[in-house]
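User: For my dataset I need records formatted as: sequence, then structure tokens, nothing else. Please produce one.
Assistant:
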Amino acid sequence: MAQNSKENTRSSDIKFIDIAKTIPSELLESASSAKRIDSKTKLPSKIFRGFVQAIYMDVLIGNKKTALIEVTTNEGITVYVRLTDGGLRQPKNPGLMVGKYYAVVITNLIDLSDSGDNEERFCAIGSIQTAEYMIGYSLNARMAANPKEFHDEKRIGTINSIVNTDINGRRHEMVFFEYSGLQLMMMDYQVGYYSQAHPLTSEYRLGDEVAFQIQNVELTRIDDAERGLRGSYFDIRASGKRFKENPKITVNRLVATGAFINAYITKVDPVKGVLVEVAPGYELKATFSNQTAGSNVKKLDAVEHTPVQVQVLSVDHTRRFGVVRVLSFPQGFADTSQVLF
């Protein structure tokens, strides 16, 4: 006889008290102090850096279902944040917040104690949006007070994702990183100088540090009724180019010293011929010692960015064009699916 089974599906009767983690007794005083309102700013007195452990999409608070973000601060305090208070730059898919660090403040403590408890039981309610506003406000004030010093400061972020995108038919990458609990983003051409042959993923991995400077901090308003996101936040524009060598300097050095280097095939065109990248943004025309070698270059070499050994002969910085002499071309490299070294 077949046994009836009931599928375990999402339930609408999960109450907040059923999932709430209470504050450890030894951290209760710290949490209570952190939520105190500063008399001057009218904002909480402390900002925490916290790790998003989970997002609960359907939790009953009173008679209303809401989505809650569970954040664990570096100190070990679990803070619950309504999704609508999870920051005005949060991703459209809230699940992408899980596993990342965010700034958070504690705005309230809820007493979960009952008559049978031997000690007080409190859980923390907080806001990511308020924390991000407070950090942005502070950065904006520092920028206004001393712009040069502020813009020149070298800052370090931690990469948490690199996403491919397409802009006008060209492959680009968006680099998302955390800095002091803020989730920021730079395009590949802001992290450094755009290279066709070397995507950022060839240099950076998740968890790597990325150097940058803040170019601007601007107060911005958002009103997204569909997602329930309303308010003001500080938009932060970053760039890491200053900490990368300018390709113009690189190319000048190559020409002046007659250097032999590895370059990478980026285009095989019936009119322009074979172009190789010697530095980010510099695709130079390749000349071969004999026509046989040149005729062996295939379009697949441009796709695979086949490496060739070259000497840079000349360059025009205005057009970012020039000529290289190919010294060595690895025959059939692009046709080889697995290259052994």
